[in-house]
């Protein structure tokens, strides 16, 4: 039996593994796609230590750091979780494994519109993360699709860089908090296209236009260099349900500030986890921070209350 099994080899799971190695916690890490969402990030410009780094390169560095401590990332899909005496059993597409504790770090995925051009232009003008990619659209025309907080705050953020921002929402009212909507409406370069939808994204090599369902000011499409799709995220929490782990109303795993779930011995980290009372913010830095705290909590749990020694205080 292992002391810990980490499910998920994205930024959160890999950071948890690095910390677990330094705490000398005997563990395994599983990741169907090693690197997770980071493998899709074109250019990361907000991870401290790198002014600009392609997502796959950043993730490769994390993979190397996990391996540096002698831990193998098992590229197996976990399909089953159950409680056993003194721990948990996980079932993958290949084998069964047992551990005293678990860290769930299965992440989330951005909700897609499933319209023509969306996949083709991903990273070539299509983005799902305004807070990540806004600076790439300096002095460009962009469209933001959505009507919730992510879309409205995204429009405000993108407007600080872009020449013109269209926010396109299928309803005539936003779901976003009124304070954000008010702030957005004061920004001249943001134009609202309401009760309308984008049905296709077109271009040659890169995004050139967003085709609308209904004409807007006599035009059937908007000439844009970028399209941000901000219509929400889907957490990968199906496995958590098998253990009776509490989810919030959006299906994120509820955790306390120590990343503990309602099931003793099970912790969660990264995009999958929602710290109760905390801000929902999904980034590399928040995922790595969660992973570190989850590993420290596992150490504490395994040593029945011993305070985790800060890793910087001793040489490994
Ligand atoms: C296109 C794009 C650009 C982005 N740009 C930035 C940026 O510039 N800056 C920034 O800070 N953030 C950015 N983000 C957000 C950032 O990538 C995420 O917040 C972060 O990667 C979340 O890490 P995570 O470890 O929680 O989850 P993920 O990266 O989603 O990793 C989840 C892991 O769990 C594994 N997994 C899931 N289910 C199973 C299963 N059943 N069995 C085995 N393994 C499983 C997956 O294979 C994967 O390894 C971007 C995201 C995207 C998609």
Question: How is this fold's topology laid out?
Answer:
Blueprint: E1 2-7, H1 11-22, E2 27-30, H2 55-68, E3 73-74, E4 78-84, E5 87-92, E6 96-104, E7 108-110, E8 126-127, H3 130-133, E9 141-145, H4 149-159, E10 164-169, H5 178-185, E11 190-194, E12 198-203, E13 207-216, E14 219-223, E15 226-229, E16 233-235, H6 238-241, E17 253-255, E18 266-268, E19 273-275, H7 284-302
Parallel strand pairs: 1-2, 1-6, 2-3, 6-18, 8-15, 9-10, 9-15, 10-11, 17-19
Antiparallel strand pairs: 4-5, 5-6, 7-16, 12-13, 13-14
Number of strands: 19
The rounded Rg comes to 21 Å
Helix content: 10-25%
Count of helical regions: 7
> What is the mean predicted local confidence, pLDDT?
93
Bound molecules: flavin-adenine dinucleotide
- The termini sit apart by 24 Å
Q: What percentage of amino acids are in beta strands?
A: 25-35%
Secondary-structure-derived class: alpha/beta
Low-confidence stretches: none
Q: How would you spell out the order of helices and strands?
A: EHEHEEEEEEHEHEHEEEEEEHEEEH
Note the overall shape.
Answer: elongated
Biggest sheet details: 7 strands, mixed
Entry summary:
The protein has helices at residues 11-22, 55-68, 130-133, 149-159, 178-185, 238-241, 284-302; strands at 2-7, 27-30, 73-74, 78-84, 87-92, 96-104, 108-110, 126-127, 141-145, 164-169, 190-194, 198-203, 207-216, 219-223, 226-229, 233-235, 253-255, 266-268, 273-275. With 316 residues, the protein is of the alpha/beta class. α4 runs parallel beside α5.
